[in-house]
Queue: 3 jobs
Job 1
Amino acid sequence: MAEKLPPLTAQDVEGPLNDPTFTVYMYVGSKNDEGWDNAELAFGLLARLRIYLVEDIALIKKWIGNKKPKGIVFGWDDQPVRFLNKAQADDFKIVLTAIQDAR
Amino acid sequence: MCRIHSIRRAVTLVTLILLFSPGVPAKEADPVEKDFFAGLNFQLVEETKDVDRPIASDHRTQVDFRSTLILRFDPLEEKAERAPDNPAWTGLQAILETVGDIAEEYTALNAASINIDDPNEVEELQQHVKQHGARVVAAVIGTYDHAAKTGRFENSNEFVQLLNGRTTEPGYKPGQQYENLAFFLAQEIERLQASARHLREEKSGYEVTVIAIRHPISAQVQALHVDPYDNLPGGQLSGGPLAEYGIRMTEEELSRFRMEVEMSARAAEAIREIMANGDDIRDEAKALAKRLETRLKTMLDSFALDEGTLKEWRTQLDRMIEEMVRVEATASAQEVKTAASQVAEALRGYRDDLDTAGQIVTTLTDLRDQLTTPGTTDLFEIVAGEHGLFTKLNTLASQVKTLGTASGKWAERAKTIAQKAPLIGQQLINEAVVKEIETFLGKLPKTASALTAVSEYLSTAGKVARAAETLEEAAHEQIYFDINEEAPPSGVITLNHYQLNRGEHITVKVQFRAKDSTDIRKFAHATTYRLEVEKLEQHHSIGASLIFARAQTGTDDATRWKPNVAAMVNWHYRHRDPENGFEEMWNWLNPGAGVHLASLDQGDDTAEFGIGPGFTFWNGLMHAGFGWNLSQPEDREYFFLGVNLFHLLDVARPTAGGATWQAEIDTR
């Protein structure tokens, strides 16, 4: 199920990110954003997907460095495959396609 | 003048009748009805001997003068069952059939227990997930795209919220995306089916007719027979189609041919007269120009203004305005400041009008000078050129009208100055100037109305054309057919039953009205096709031209270029859809080849005739060829160059008053 950072920490998501049977999509923002609606839609339709709502971007610095993306798409490991800006994260077609392409 | 006034009165009357008559067709249909008729299937087709060509309603299309136009309606029965043929319906139905499968796969894949230490198992799972994901993405995006085309959503987030179950619409559950997707698909499919049923029921309440109107280049508009939508006669050539290769002339062709012969003969005679009496004609032309010059001088004198006077007045006004600005800046009392400002404003108004008066004087002077400049010989340039009389008279009319309108403020300005001047305590105005200006303005209204009458008449010509079309439509009884289970009959317009000429316009209107409407001329929907008649592919032309011919050898008199008349028949080919630069060039040049019979003047005989081959370009405008003089025993060969004066008039027409009319028709 969808989880939030915080209370989860970077250490908490390292395990799921390294699980080769799941992919991950992180959204940076709040639960009322269109971008989060899209993340929930993807979670409800695409199998073997974990989604995280990141409310403190500093917690995922390890994966994004100094970038400030709204969406981070991971493949079958802990390496980001694609960063999405706000317009992209707000477009459900782009979100679904980006997650699918990362697999 | 009286004629112009009566034409204007007639135009105004027609416009008023059309505006207030219940017979004016509705310009704007109800938006709901617009959507409803957008789904109706009918098509205008040009039927030629080789192929049927669909005609679009969004731009003017060329049609061949011999073709048949057919307006075809799709059978309504097919339209009523159209939902299964609708791409949105079939697309959504196909997606719905896959949703059950992918939902099951989603559950199974999420529940799968995998040994993550076994690379083969992991890879196999990843492959399945990827394949599943591809089907999911296609289904969801496909659903949205189909639904979005029908205007179901304002934005994509509305769709996402629906699938996430965050909606007030009943039947959707939070977090049940697959269930919601299936529910949405089923709802949309039902909605499209209902829409198709509604379309079928609604359409039975309407009836339709088809009207065709012909716009000849220089004659009244005419309603063409559309079988079976009216009882008009089938056209003057309905006894038989036009001959494609033969040269048998119809009555109209014969009539035009006679006029061309007569016109060319008169032109040849006039040219011969000019050649013989050139000096006399030049003197006549000079006298005519002199009379016009005198008229213009009288007009200028009546204004009692010259550039020197105008300059002097302007200097005085500038000085007074500067003085008022100074008073406004330096006076201590606010009342005086305000008075100075108001007087300055009134004076500036006078100055602007004075400048306009100056422009009028300049235009009048130009007109006079143009006629008196030695060496001006190009009559066309004098009358219709860029700086010609026509343009200048229009400019003059506009300037006089501007000044005439401004003159309405003069009394008010004079009153302002009279009231405020005592406050300022100075004698500001040169009363003589004011009096002169008032005298000048007293002459304006009459002059302005005379000059603007011409331009107003020209601007109303297009309205007359539109009004004529509407009146022609109303002049005969249209037959309406119900839109019900059966398709309305095809409307057939046989163009080769009419003597159509190149460049004529035809409008075909498909008009729908509600059967229960109390206003029988109020249309619920109308589609208009705009066509231009062209002579396409193989065709021939018969005509008479003014020619200049000379013998190849013989006496000095025989080898001089002399004007005469020739009758000729030419065959042409025009590409219907030019596919390359060569074919475009060919159509532009529109060459033809044929034979001619010419009257000649190369010997002592009173009547001489010649015959031979010839070529023509630009659709018969220019001719060239050679032949043999049948009346001469020797030196028989001759050459000629010719021009068809009728065609020349047709080509020249758009540059004259006809341009306004044409532009109005084009923008309808």
Job 2
Amino acid sequence: MNTREKLVALKTIATREILRFSRIWIQTVIPPVITTALYFVIFGNLIGPRIGKMDGFDYMEFIIPGLIMMAVITNSYSNVVSSFYGSKFQRHIEEIIISPTPNYIILLGFICGGVARGLAVGVAVTIVSLIFHPLNIYSLWVMFSMIILTAILFSLAGLINGVFAKSFDDISIIPTFVLTPLTYLGGIFYSINMLPEFWQNMSRANPILYMVNAFRYGFLGVSDISLTTSYVIIIAFIITLYLFSLHLLKKGHEIRT
Amino acid sequence: MQPALTIRDLEKTYQGGHTALKGVSLEVAEGDFFGLLGPNGAGKTTLIGILSSLVNKSGGSVSIFGHDLDTDLASAKACIGLVPQEFNFNMFEPAIEIVANQAGYYGIERQEAFRRAEEYLRHLDLWDKRRVMARTLSGGMKRRLMIARALVNRPKLLILDEPTAGVDIEIRRTMWAFLREINEAGTTIILTTHYLEEAESLCRNIAIIDKGELIENTSTRQLLSTLKMETFVLDLESPLAEVPVLKNHKLQWINEHTLETDICRDDSINTLFTELNEQGIKVLSMRNKTNRLEELFMNLVENANSNRAAS
């Protein structure tokens, strides 16, 4: 395949992935928006005023970036894991496997789908947040780059989960037992400076902490973690997961016999 | 002329230890309509899986139009169109998108992909169903959809794994006509089927696989010429009370209006009619009882099993 043909193949997979979640937007886009809106009402509006300031900001203002990031993480992950496992389960992954499309194009196509859904939900949640608090943007570039990198990272993680999954149970185990706890403990609702030193150090082992804090920096200009450290860690994770995903596709793990 | 497919010593042993292919070698000429036959579990689908890169081979080599699967996989894949045994498309996508997307995976631009999708969906009588979700199509429509999808990249080698399974006879005959048409237009076709009538009618050359081994590989004509006996069914004008006894032929009672007899290919059928005339029995019509290839196929598989048991 020449470069032009590869781009056509990439566009085809990406378009198919975007159409897939767009067709069922009531199941894919609306629920996370409703859930996050409830967080805004309960934690931001009802409990928030009693908590007071967090890192010098209203509690509602403090949690908005984290909640947007949480929606992006869970949606980019779940889009790719469900799409990839679904294509394995219905065996239509074979349509792509038999074609000359290179593995890295297949991978990029699925990532495009995950990033698109992450962004769609992220934008929808941001619009809903405007009802509760005006939007402050400190650095649009940091905000935008961090949301894209995070969506890429969790799309890759979702694909790896999809490759290994042997049943529909397997695609919900990681989100339930790993992703959700890490997200909640990733500094969405609190600053890690509030924690004892031991738990602060433990929190630093959680990669989601770096994403949430860097993203919050894009809104508020404050972060518990250095911005450079956040970028280095996220990019290192993306490279590692990308190479591992490519290796799995090349081997045909759970795809070829 | 370069062969469309060259297989040398192809082996496949699955993780559980089951050996599906034991050193199969065969060649398919360009433009051929080639039948790959064998009983269930013979290794046909494994072989097709290897050709289409869905199954990793354990040994041997495969070359498609000169492109080796180990060294030039992308070029080999570009030559192939596959109609698998089981439905393997997204049931929640419209038919036209399934076909057009497949073209996209081969690098065909969107506009051209939809043009080709229209061409094949119309040809296979699915155009009216183009916007319908694939899951709502009937079994026969789903099979035709997979054929349209396999053709959209204009493959030089079309592989069909039991394409007419579960399809009614009318649609099956329409599909045969269509397959003949694309073969005549230059596409090499490899067909596996359990309908031996289908193989006899379509294929110029036939290979038979049993328990992972190639037990026959020859032309359909050559294969049929090895058949010694044929069974004929005779429909009679008047009912008979008992089976007539003939000098040179043994008749079998089916019912009072129907008899059956085996005739050696070297013998003339005229003698049978002469003897029936002598007894005043008038035959209204005569037909083959079984498909000729079916008989041969059973003989070959039984012989292969006996040889294995003896060794």
Job 3
Amino acid sequence: MMKKLFLLVITGTMILQAAAVFGAERPSPDKIIEMANDASYYQGQDGRADVKMTITDKAGGVRIREFTILRKNTGQKDQKFYVYFKEPADVRKMAYLVWKHVGKEDSRWLWLPALNLKKRIAPGDKRTSFVGSDFFYEDVSGRGVNEDTHELLKSDDTWYLIKNVPKDPDSVEFVYYHVWINKTTFLPEKAEYYDKNGNLYRRVEAKKIMKIQGYPTVVESIASDLVAGTRTINRFDNVRYDIGLKDRIFTERFLRRPPREVTQ
Amino acid sequence: MSGSRFFTALLFIFLLVPSTRANAGEEQGSFLDRTGIDIHGFLDLRGGSRIREDDYQRDTSLLESRLQLDMSRAGDSFTLQVRADFIYDDVQEDTDLDLEEGTGYLDLREANLLFSPLDLIDVKIGRQILTWGTGDLLFLNDLFPKDWQSFFIGRDEEYLKAPSDALLISLFPDFANIDLVYMPRFDADRFISGERISYYHTTLGRLAGRDAIIDPLTPNDWLDDDEISLRISKNIKGYELAFYGYHGFWKSPIGMDLIQQKAFFPNLNVYGASLRGSLIKGLFHLEASYYDSKDDTSGDNPYIPNSEIRILAGYEQELAKEFSAAVQYYLESMRHYETYQATLPPSVHPKDEERHLFTVRLTKLALNQNLTLSLFCFYSPSDQDAYFRPTVKYKISDSLMITLGGNIFTGDADYTFFGQFEKNSNIYAGIRYSF
């Protein structure tokens, strides 16, 4: 009963928000980015996906990463992630646990099954490659909306085009980036990153979007490193939302004993 | 029970127990798929050579091929896990199969059953690898068996941990996590015996190797010669606090039985605590322990180690993109040094009261994280000795990896911890195919 009521309230709020969007009042760039962030990383109370990454280098060599990812929203904008690796064979059964804290460093652990060891990982540059792919850690878990200033460059029937400039330029490799946000779904569908010479060097695109349990969801995305000539295709399968993940899954107990949600 | 019979018996258990995967309608595929067994592993070939002349050893320090098979089967309420290495080792002289010492053609790494009899309890029974504590290649409260021989000759770092035959009970009440490990029979370290690594022989007063292989008196009575390890841990706002206890034996045979003229494993209790969390832009860890040498509580027996306090402090930080550094300081301090000095036979070189040790680990990833360059250094200002572990790993493809590395020891004296291994300094190369 409470759940239904809750859903009703949420739906109501969303309709009101949508009304505000389509009404006379156009949302501020900050608001658009915040809604895009919610649409990309916070759908539902929790979720799961099987991810297949195909990394292609300049010479055409291919490497594959397969993992299952669990995500749970834990209040405000904090989240917990559980990533369970399946391929390649040398990282099989390794697990990566993140407690994301907005506004301060995340807590991260790596589970090494051969040693039965939970290894704490020092905070790292979030704009570093995730498992050797062209996606960054930040692409996987989200970039803080307050880390950039946002300017609306263009608004047509389909898109908001927003320019984002980092508040701390030394902390990132880009000088600015453009992001195209779909006006209906609020999903960012393309982001292009520019260096200090004004050259475009990196692109992240949503290639396929599906509605899953009512939530518009990116099920295929591509990140391209235009300088190195490498690219990574991400495919998301078996996406489910609101599966009732318990908080305790995101603890050492379930690193040692991977939960059914990731092994099956 | 012989190792191979034990292994065969386990395979049978695997085949008999129903699996959820087998029931999930995946009827196609190989026989193994149909039985629900998931087999993975690797084939690892590696060889290494001493870089200094050692009168007591072969020049070849490592020459082996190793097939690891990892089989697991998850049921509704349990997980069965078997991980075994089949080895051809050209250097090892003792080729009798011994699952405790890890000699012979089979090294059984894991063979265990994990289940939850109650909501807040996990139980893992059987052969398993156990690890805890906060140190990086330094162990204070982790008294689970180590394989120093593998570590020093250039096997993969995971082989530093030797398996335990144990019952692990984990409890998860709200206030803390409690892990209790019972080992019904003592699991010694796979210690430096002289067989492959030369060492300083205190009685002979010189380096020794294959001419003086240590054959200790090992406590091996089931239930009488048992070990207990306990950890109580809690995560408080991202800070991981833990308390530890251990009841058992010194893990290497560092006692001397004068009547039988043999090395032995004296009794030992250990109590300790650790804390780990973030600090500035990195991570810190602190750990301390008290080694209570039960057979020599007053410290007046020079043939049994003194009680000790051990302290560790470490910090780790990413210095640049894909480049991180970690430093540690470690102290071993003897409790009854004056008594030790007074009772020590004049022929034996006295240890220092305090052993200070610093470690540095540098790690650099490159080429889309397919290349890992790493250097780990131990340096002791009190012993005036050091140990360097450089490694280069390159992933040629998702399944193929090559490794180059070295174990370089240096020291002013033959009798210090790393100094005694100077002539065992080696370089090695390996290739691993994972499937």
